[in-house]
């Protein structure tokens, strides 16, 4: 049996990882500024993370949500303490970002009794049924996913948003920072307009913090930079540092009923152990503060380089837009053994390193980046 060929792959296998570094099968060491789509939040193979997962595996690895699982409540408590203002919200656990967003949209529809969802240009919310329909990429929307229930509005366009809002809208879904869309930053004013219009028409504000959450922006959630509070927030990626887990946190005014949401694997013992380790390390090692400090340094230095069209983001979610992005990214990987992400449609390199990256490691990237920019310019 062959693998279904849907992924463009790096030309190597990774066999070892530690901190901000990974090693391939030939012993080459790479600085990982990609983290497998922003998943690695606390660094690879962190000792506390490995310890908690091993300890849990030796007790019980899995049982479904048909029994009490106290470790879920422990995770909810630690998560609430980290969020900075969402302690009174409830947690529903699932397995992935797409699943988190599916549950968010479903819950908004249940709560309001409505069908319509507002989404935005350049958005990406996942590849499954409703959330792929709310993703601004027709190439990944199959005919079965097509629906008239999604209304797309230009990102950061307050007038356009106001024009479509009415009493038929169940919710507005927006990323704290657009990831696949090229690290596009919602303005404070725009997020505040989303909040006020949702209040006006009885819709729910859904913040997709799957890539931008869990401390990556320097705050626990990126939308907290704009001083707004959402009704539902979706999470995944950095939540388990590579162990599959996702979730939504839900405002107190949204009523739970038995059977309205469900999952077989979501919130299992091992997943919760991984997520608890992430919470512990973010708190103990002050990783939000590190993300803010190292991220600010990176962005300030990147803005000094000639040839860069734009630098966008918060903390350690940074988009670097430049015309020859693909060549620069390839040279960083091949010549300097540095892995980065990309948003090809936006000509943007995405920097998504572990939140415990050091300033020295950031400096290593900046030196390599400068050399690559110079070599590309000379070659032309």
For this entry, what is the oligomeric state of its chains?
single chain
Helix-strand category: alpha/beta
Major sheet description:
7 strands, mixed
Unreliable parts: none
The number of distinct helices, counting runs of at least 4 residues, comes to 11
CATH third-level topology of the largest domain:
Aspartate Aminotransferase, domain 2
Considering DSSP H and I runs of 4 or more, what fraction of the residues is helical? 25-40%
Q: Indicate the CATH architecture of the largest domain.
A: 3-Layer(aba) Sandwich
Please give the order of strands in the largest beta sheet.
4-10-9-8-7-5-6
Q: Can you identify the CATH superfamily of the largest domain?
A: Type I PLP-dependent aspartate aminotransferase-like (Major domain)
The total tally of domains equals 2
Proportion of residues in extended strands: 15-25%
Q: How many E strands?
A: 15
Rough outline:
globular
Order of helices and strands: EEEHHHEHEHEHEHEEEHHEEHEEEH
Q: Report the span from N to C terminus.
A: 45 Å
What's the alpha carbon Rg, rounded to whole Å?
21 Å
* CATH top-level class of the largest domain: Alpha Beta
Protein name: Aspartate aminotransferase family protein
GO molecular function, one term: transaminase activity
Organism: Solitalea longa
Family: Belongs to the class-III pyridoxal-phosphate-dependent aminotransferase family.
